[in-house]
Design brief:
226 residues; alpha/beta; Rossmann fold; 2 domains; 7-stranded parallel β-sheet; 43% helix
Length: 226
């Protein structure tokens, strides 16, 4: 069996940017699968707005039917902050012979030394960094030193090792954020073309991101037939 790409996040909500990045990494690096793991409690940001089960439902709806995409709810079942080291240790126990690759963006790379037990992550997995074409990795500071020691330049070289390497892959970066989508929906606007139609339907049906004022207006319009 081939390598597993580990794609964690709040997915509050999951959007086209997430899906496009995952698809390109899956294709370009010939990953056997990309495993989406909605987190329970993100260690480095505010708690998600949508409930865990609803976020899981959205991830399943967004990835349904896409070859190579798998949804994993282990972080939602685990109490406390959703630390990547705990998730990777759990995945390694389940898949002892398969390469694991933690998929992250540029912002996560730059803050990586601040992650919980970050050095131990390399005992379990590689780090694959998705970035904009033309972006140059840092050459100085903690991350510069780490990259000079661990970075490889080809996928073959990456997966020649069981874990512990960093690979940087250009991908199409779409300027979409979950927070911007939540603000858009809260204002009463439609997130069409930012999320899949299936996720859009779940957001509309649940009202998970609608502000109290917008929800009151919607009720009033429904009651008056406007």
């Amino acid at each position: 069996m081939g390598a597993i790409g580990v794609f964690g996040g709040s997915f509050d909500p999951i959007h086209i940017g997430h899906l496009r990045t995952a698809c390109e990494l899956w294709q370009k690096l010939s990953l056997d699968e990309v495993r989406f793991l909605p987190c329970r409690i993100p260690p480095h940001r505010d708690r998600p707005v949508a409930p865990a089960e609803l976020r899981l439902q959205m991830v399943r709806a967004a990835t349904e039917g896409q070859p190579g995409f798998v949804v994993d709810d282990r972080e939602l079942k685990r109490e406390g902050p959703s630390y990547s080291i705990d998730t990777l240790a759990s995945l390694r126990a389940d898949y002892p012979a398969r390469p694991l690759a933690l998929l992250v963006g540029m912002d996560a790379l730059l803050s990586f030394p601040d992650w919980h037990r970050w050095r131990e992550i390399f005992d379990f997995a590689h780090l694959i960094v998705a970035h904009r074409p033309g972006w140059k990795p840092p050459t100085a500071g903690r991350m510069g030193q780490l990259l000079s020691r661990l970075m490889v330049t080809t996928a073959d070289e990456l997966f020649a090792h069981p874990a512990g390497r960093i690979y940087v892959q250009p991908v199409t970066q779409l300027e979409i954020s979950s927070s911007a989508i939540r603000m858009l929906v809260a204002s009463g606007a439609d997130p069409a073309y930012l999320v899949t139609d299936t996720v859009r339907e779940i957001i509309a049906a649940s009202g998970c991101y609608v502000s109290p004022a917008a929800a009151r207006l919607q009720r009033e319009e429904t009651e008056t037939g406007a």
